[in-house]
Amino acid sequence: MLDRLSDAVSLRGGSLAAGFVVRMPANYIHDANALPLFLQKRMFRTCEKRVDEIANYVLNGKRGRMEKFNPLMSLLFSKGIEKQYLRGELNPDIDKNFWTDDKCNGCGICAKICPVSNIEMVDDRPAWQHRCEKCLTCIQWCPKEALQFKDVTLKRKRYHHPGVKLSDMLKRGETG
Prior knowledge:
The protein is mostly helical. It contains six helices and four strands, in the order αααβαββαβα.
């Protein structure tokens, strides 16, 4: 992944001074369930140490190596993305696979939180406008867990970074 970025920057006459891998909890509910909170906390502690190290590199203008993702995980991830693409699951109209169950109370948080304004409320229900970037923010932040993708998300836990609150996300949407 960083190799591709380095190549793209190089084609434009630049170079990367270093590349770092920071593992974070998966938040792509379409492909995986949220990790248990204790594992998330462990990952965040490790991440905080890495961020300090990376900041030290940047602040001191150091050069370093390009870290590699786990090659097996990178291969599986790229193959998974390729399969999704070939099935048409990365097209903007992917939102045709979103739906709401009977827990939807028409609060409209999904419409307010969507970073590309892809959701309009119609008769107190979300209506997707086919500009979806499949970030799944609407599903992750629905307070009733009423938004679903196909039948994949029905029993999956939603992920929220413990340091981010719904009010933070809504403020971000107002300024975006």
